[in-house]
Design a protein that fits this description.
Helix content is 77%, strand content 0%. The chain is an all-alpha fold and 92 residues long. The protein has 2 helices and no strands. The longest helix has 36 residues. It is elongated.
């Protein structure tokens, strides 16, 4: 039987390529959300409701950045451990 289909390694490489192109866009999006909150907070002019809304956007942006950095580190550690980690390999 000829196994001309995709191998596990080729599937991993394809997923890696897609994720490595999406990750920078997600970092930019989280940064924009944070900065939007900062601008909204500064422009609020003392209005408590608008300031609270700005704070929420800043918190969401920071949480998004923190989660992405943490997951990026975990994935890099897993890739270097399980898929040939001699030189501290990089997932992206």
């Amino acid at each position: 039987m000829n196994n001309s289909g995709a191998t596990f390694a080729s599937l991993i490489d394809a997923a890696k390529g897609v994720l490595c192109s999406i990750i920078p866009a997600l970092f930019i999006l989280a940064t924009v959300v944070f900065l939007y909150g900062v601008v909204k907070y500064v422009v609020a002019g003392g209005d408590e409701k608008k300031m609270d809304s700005g704070k929420q956007f800043m918190i969401y942006g920071l949480i998004g950045l923190f989660v992405m950095v943490a997951m990026w580190g975990i994935v890099n550690a897993a890739v270097s451990t399980f898929f040939g980690g001699g030189g501290g390999g990089n997932a992206c």
